[in-house]
Write a structure and sequence with these properties.
The chain is α+β, with helices and mostly antiparallel strands. It has a single domain, classed as TATA-Binding Protein (2-Layer Sandwich), CATH 3.30.310. The chain has 5 helices and 6 strands, in the order ββαβαβαββαα. A 6-stranded antiparallel sheet has the order 1-2-6-5-4-3. It is globular and about 40 Å long.
Length: about 130
């Protein structure tokens, strides 16, 4: 487990495909839905004809928190959903989640800050459960 300045990461003992499925299930178990799934490896291969290791972005949403956030800050949708990435580096697979308190830190709104803190705790629990 490692905490970056803006993300929370863990090396997992799973194949890349299994890590994606396990992450989606762990998110679901904590009330998140996955709104988007972007296969960066294939997208960049198709658009730029470049090779890279497996890399997928999951756009996770916790509906009650998203609603509360939008009610307190109408343009917060610019920063939603919360991204969770699953990627492979050499033979290792990692799962990493955005730290919402960092992302939302530029917005001066106490109610939003409380929601960001709650979501960050939830995302860390998801990552830790893998």
């Amino acid at each position: 487990m490692k905490t970056a300045n803006y993300g929370y990461r863990k090396k997992v003992k799973a194949t890349f495909i299994d890590a994606i499925e396990q992450t989606k299930q762990a998110l679901k178990n904590d009330g998140f839905g996955v709104l988007t799934e972007i296969d960066i490896k294939n997208t960049l291969k198709n658009k730029l004809n470049v090779e890279m290791e497996n890399y997928t972005i999951l756009g996770a949403c916790h509906p009650p928190s998203a609603y509360q956030s939008i009610q307190s800050e109408i343009e917060i949708g610019l920063m939603l959903p919360c991204n969770v990435i699953v990627y492979q580096k050499n033979d290792a697979v990692f799962v990493s989640a955005i730290m919402p308190t960092v992302a939302m830190g530029m917005i001066e709104n106490n109610e939003l800050g409380n929601v960001a803190l709650d979501i960050e705790k939830r995302l860390k629990l998801v990552i830790d459960s893998l």
